[in-house]
Amino acid sequence: MPIHNVLIVDDSKTELMYLTDLLEKNGMSVRTAENADEAFRRLAEQKPDLILMDVVMPGQNGFQLTRTISRNPEFADVPIIMCTSKNQETDRVWGMRQGARDYITKPVNAAELKAKIGALNSTSK
Question: N or C, which terminus of the chain has less Cβ within 10 Å?
Fold first, then answer.
């Protein structure tokens, strides 16, 4: 299943605009959410092919939200890439343990993100 529909969860309007622009220029459809509650509403509206997840957000953080989504049978097959300023190896390991498929530190490098999405495309059925 190729990745076309992406949900970006980030409380930074600047990051949302940057990532949305980047993905739309690569032919993807993007929806955004600024917190966990909004993310759940977007998930209920349409199941995405990929979720880009910030970590540091008000309320439920990205680690908690990733764990909740990845353990829900309805969404367990949706890959999540953490996109965060938390750049410690322990953060990356913790994010992967919560169910993320990959981890990128901010500022997001466009070529790196495209490569990671491409890798997910080639491993999906």
Answer: C
Dist. CA 100–CA 22, nearest whole Å: 21
pLDDT in tens, 56-83: 998 999 999 999 999 999 999 999 999 9
Long-range contacts at 37-42 (CB < 8 A, ≥ 24 apart): 38/9, 39/7, 39/9, 39/65, 39/69, 42/7
DSSP assignment of the chain, as one string? ----EEEEE-S-HHHHHHHHHHHHHTT-EEEEESSHHHHHHHHHH---SEEEE-S--SSS-HHHHHHHHHTSTTTTTS-EEEEES---HHHHHHHHHTT-SEEEESSPPHHHHHHHHHHHHHH--
Q: Is the pLDDT of residue 125 over 50?
A: no
Q: What angle do CA 56, 60, 65 make, to 5 degrees?
A: 90
Q: Is the pTM of this model over 0.85?
A: yes
Residue 85 has a CB neighbour count (10 Å cut-off) of: 13
